[in-house]
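Slide 14.
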Amino acid sequence: MKVKQLSLFLENRPGALHHPTQLLADAKLNILALSLADTQQFGILRLIINDWEEAVRVLEKEGYIVKVNDMIALEVPDAPGGLAAVLGALERTHIKLEYMYGFTQRTTGRGLVLLRFDDPDRAIVALQKQKINPIRRVDLFR
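Slide 15: predicted structure.
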């Protein structure tokens, strides 16, 4: 029920994002979702990739330091209030949400939200008790 996310630290300079994405493209690895957070000196590129283990090998071979984290993917209605309803249910769990990012799949009319919790296993149990089921990794890449 958890999805692996890769995090790379990149120098904040023009072109720094191109190299790792080109490496992944050359290896035929598909980026499903990404997030980029930056400061004046560096950025953190967060990626959900179809074959995360191969992506780690490719990136580390080129000298990147890659951190792997467990994320939880949730499907939300792609409509006003869809995200608010899920966040309301999460608020009742009292589990710390560290960050999130999302994207939509217009073919299904649903949005997907990727969430990073301080305790992902506890978050999964708490969400399931509220009838919110995380998306399995295999379903995320269909």
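Speaker note: The chain is about 30% helix and 40% strand.
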